[in-house]
């Protein structure tokens, strides 16, 4: 597959936020943190009673699976468009793992999308505003949205279906599991915009940007491809630098210098970050291909700084 990237050009088409009426992961970090504590505490108690190390043999997930009821409109969208857009690649009903034997390669792309266009994957597509707007603006590219929460999946189905898009698909799977089955060089770009920050120190291990995933993303990216990341949480920005700036096979393609604390803070002591020693880091200008969603607007209104990253596969 020929390596191509979306240039820093503004997406002309934007998606209306009128359809947004369901809560998804990035709008409920506090709920996820509380649920994560409950699950982790229960698992730790069980392990201790059995004489095993805490979280023995369990995957550390970047999300907490919650039940979510779809309203009538989103249920109709699911019933109408799931067969067209939702990939059937899961290991089984209710599973977020990919099925055995699956490989995301050039043949898979041709079979699903019917062409050899470059493939871009968004991790945690939320309500789908970004990925759908990009699919509208770039009909010569293929897009795969990864989202685990039913309302977000349904809303993305609704947006894509209303516009009759043919170059987008959705997978309701755990993102790290999917990247493990990607063939080398099959992807052109990977996007991770405003992932769950998991603000408590003991939950930082749940953040989606981790060395293992970075290695799998690099293998999946064609040479010259990019992983674009954005966050409005300063401590997460430091986390991204720690993982990605030293990751073999990636080069930080940023052009602007920012000052960040060099020590981590958690939910309870985040206000102390300003007093910590700081250092300069290299980041990117805002990715013009990312539409300004309500989520990002809320962060800006709250006075948070948006940190954009572009890591190029070398």
From TrEMBL:
Residues 1-50 are annotated as: Disordered. Its EC number is 2.1.1.33. It comes from the Bacteria. Pfam families: Methyltransf_4. PROSITE patterns: SAM_MT_TRMB. Pathway: tRNA modification; N(7)-methylguanine-tRNA biosynthesis. Residues 1-25, 35-44 have a biased composition (Polar residues). Coiled coil: none annotated. Substrate binds at residues 200, 232, 293-296. Belongs to the class I-like SAM-binding methyltransferase superfamily. TrmB family. NCBIfam families: tRNA (guanosine(46)-N7)-methyltransferase TrmB. This is tRNA (guanine-N(7)-)-methyltransferase. It comes from Bifidobacterium hapali.
